[in-house]
Amino acid sequence: MPDQPERQRLSPAAENPETGRPDAATLNEHQQALRRAMMDAFSAKKARRFIERHVNHININRDLAEGIKFLFDEKGRPPENMPLEDIIDERRKLEYQLKWFEGIVLELNNRLVKVREMEDYALEMLSRAAPED
Fold it and tell me: CB-side exposure of 15: number of CA atoms within 13 Å?
């Protein structure tokens, strides 16, 4: 890519000649605070996603185990003469519960979208009303 011209940086911070990245030491106090806040938010989001994935995996496995527990006796063995109707009935109950939960999640997502839109609008109005420095 030596044919491409070097692009101009948008950042007002001076570049570190060794790395070619903005030098954090040359940022003013406000920029350093913003940089720390951004890095903290990124780290928190990354950790939250990691934990959510693992907790979700654990919860799914636990719920699955609880959901099929009725199929086994106290020693973990299936009963010898379990009626097929009971298994089918339990499957139908689980499917109904799943559809019910999916409906709740869909409605909560719709409400979240509306709240985010109102939040964005409010922040936009505040930014317009704030005096510029």
Answer: 9
Task: For residue 3, list its beta bridge partners.
Answer: none
* Interatomic CA distance for residues 77 and 24, integer angstroms: 63
Do 32 and 72 lie in one domain? The reply is yes
pLDDT digits (tens, 9 = 90+) for 100-130: 888 888 888 889 999 989 988 888 888 887 6
- Domain hosting 124: range is 83-132
DSSP letter for 70, please.
G
Pair 59, 74 in one domain:
yes
pTM of the entire predicted model? 0.36
- Please give the Cα distance from 26 to 39 (Å, whole number): 17
16 found inside a domain: no
Q: In whole angstroms, give the CA distance from residue 108 to residue 69.
A: 30
User: 98 and 125 in one domain?
Assistant: yes
- CA-CA distance, 24 to 9, in Å (whole number)? 15
The answer to whether residues 15 and 22 touch, using CB atoms and an 8 Å cutoff, is: yes
